[in-house]
Amino acid sequence: MSSSASYTPLNVSEEACNEQDCQPTSNRGYTASQRRLVTWACIGTVISSILSIGVFYFDHLESPVSRAASSRAPLRRPSTYINLNSVAISGDRPPLSPIYNSPDVILQFRTSDPSRSLFEDPRWYPSDVGAIYPDDRHFLVSSETSTVVQFRNLDYEMERCHLNPTIPSPNITSFEAAVNVDFSSEIDIWMLDSSSELSRHISWSTAPPRRSHFATVDFSGKDHKPIEFRCPSSSFTTFEFSCSDRTPNCYINFWQKKERVLNGVFMVQHDSTGWP
């Protein structure tokens, strides 16, 4: 005897069926407020995506010159002499001892490069533990290369400064200065238009423009008369050394050790209290 399964719909009374439960499943969607919320969320996502793509696109369209300019933003170094100028300083005290200041940065650029792009020539030597990079600075001035030297001006009221462009002494032991000089060379020294710090992380892109001609010196190997100028404390003084027009094929090439401030190019800071 065969039997077939059959389904018989159940009678549902009108009282047991409310408006929501008896609607077909396809009609059970979001409420009007929920649908509006989803719509606005989708619109917001699309707008945010468009803005992100636009920012990315225009950032990559920015010129290299503009990016270089933004990369030269000065480093912030808060003053360590807050309100020190309001302290009464006796004028009859003995002068403070001078400070011998070695440059923190010595960089080069090609004279044929109109952008004056800076680069550093490091010195290194091999050892059993790998390459060693001593704290030596390369000074090179020739028909093809100019050198930029920057000092950080040290200490309060030590603003009477002398620049001493000299050649490392050949009598130095334990340090190879590798001096190679054409003693007929005349060098123009330019004060550069920058009091902000040169740093490989911020502003080593190009040399600052020239502000004024500072001096013309010769490297005859004789003693030089110090060149005096004002160096405001907590700032930076930047010079450019290049061949003068009278000796366009000049050649000055040596290494100087930072801790040996009396060899190479250095600056001496004197007590400036009462100095006009």
Explain briefly what this protein structure is.
This protein has 276 residues and is an alpha+beta fold. The protein has helices at 32-61, 64-71; strands at 99-101, 105-110, 125-127, 130-132, 136-142, 145-152, 160-165, 180-181, 186-192, 210-218, 227-230, 236-243, 251-257, 265-270.
Strand content: 25-35%
- Which runs of at least 5 residues are low in confidence (pLDDT < 50)? 62-72
Rg from alpha-carbon coordinates: 36 Å
Q: Outline, from the CA principal axes?
A: elongated
Number of strands: 14
Between the first and last Cα atoms, what is the distance in angstroms?
127 Å
Side by side, the strands of the main sheet go 2-6-12-9-10
Helix/strand/pairing category: alpha+beta
> How confident overall, as mean pLDDT?
78
DSSP summary: helix tally: 2
List the secondary-structure elements in sequence, H or E.
Answer: HHEEEEEEEEEEEEEE
Helix content: 10-25%
Please give the largest β-sheet. Answer: 5 strands, antiparallel
